[in-house]
Amino acid sequence: MTSMSYDAYDDPPGDGTHPLRWLSLGQLQRRTSAKWRAYPPDVLPLWVAEMDVMPAAPVARALTEAVALGDTGYASGTAYAEALDAFARKRWGWDGVVAERTATVADVMRGSVEMLKLVTGAGDAVVVNPPVYPPFFGFLEHEDRRVVEAPLGPDGRLDAVALEAAFRQAAAGGRRAAYLLCNPHNPTGAVHTRAELAAVAELAGAYGIRVVADEIHAPLVLPGAEYVPYLSVPGAEDAFALLSASKAWNLAGLKAAVAVAGPAAADDLAKLPGIVSHGPSHFGVLAHTAALRDGAEWLDAVLAGLDENRRLLGELLEHHLPGVRYLRPEGTYLAWLDCRALGLGDDPAAVFLERGRVALTGGLPFRTGGAGHVRLNFATSPELLTEGVRRMAAALP
Fold first, then answer.
1. Would you list the DSSP string of 330-382?
2. How many CB atoms lie within 10 A of CB 234?
3. Local mean pLDDT, 10-residue blocks, the chain (397 residues)
4. Cα-Cα-Cα-Cα dihedral of 45, 48, 49, 55, to 10°?
5. Which end of the chain is more exposed for a tag (fewer CB within 10 A), N or C?
6. CA 333 – CA 313 distance, rounded (Å)
7. How far apart are CA 222 and CA 219, in angstroms?
């Protein structure tokens, strides 16, 4: 791999194109993370939520400076929350990240569970919207919570009728209940509107449901949509949100997230056990803080590239796989593809892997609505995205 100093890539290399074009397949294949090691070298990986980018220069500098100082101890302080607050005010016009109502947690999923543990107990119900991020199910079941499904509508968006029915079921008998909201939604890429979220808050209030919003993809909203923080809508004052720089700046290996309590949930957050603060990585906190504070220009370049790839994917599918229904995502870098018309069974990802040597995430673990679907990660170069769809088409009988 060509040596690349972090000062050198403050400006994009080559012709100045977006960061998803910076790295060759050969360079990417030298990585040892899950995306590039879960499958044999002849498989093109377009599955797990890792982007094919170099880190933002401010992030890289923060980490290399910490190593140079020997600053490799435990996480401390509120710098992460303060950086998130400044980012939220500038990016979203939201002033709801108040440091006194935040906690630094290991990551968004673990933090979501910790918030749910504050407002529910063993055996209580938690509502989710399948098809949805598979760890929602695994973590909830591991914590002895009862999962109640409120499936998305055919358009991949929240279904108010299904949600009310699930809330009614979850709260039956007067037991405590919660709702784990994914905003923006993984895997459909739906970015919930203010009206949709206000309806959620109204229903939650009517049924006594506490809402925990996983908003890890919040910075990854693409042109044409607007991210609305759940805590910013009326009626959401007793809710929690989990945010992170992880997905937007490709920092999954540097774990840290911020839990934010609404004004009426501050007392609940104060009950969070102190041991939870031991989860975040010090390097994670440094990296996420630098990303939020100084990485907006890099993020904008990535978003421009993702928007191009979103359009390209639609064109490629129309040309090579016209039988695939593509829900054009409004956010994230994940595409939810309905492959049922191709006749590949409930798990088309297995067919694409075996016959086409392209790895996608199968839909079955996303539960209801997942059969016959795949999730494709388009946060890669246009060339590799094109090759991936070509391989998918070659896998058809």
1. SBSSEEEEE-GGGT--S-HHHHHHHHH-EE-EESGGG-TT-TTEEEEE--S-H
2. 11
3. 38 60 95 97 98 97 98 96 98 97 97 98 98 98 98 97 98 97 98 98 98 98 98 98 98 98 98 94 98 97 97 98 97 98 98 98 98 98 98 96
4. -50
5. C
6. 11
7. 9
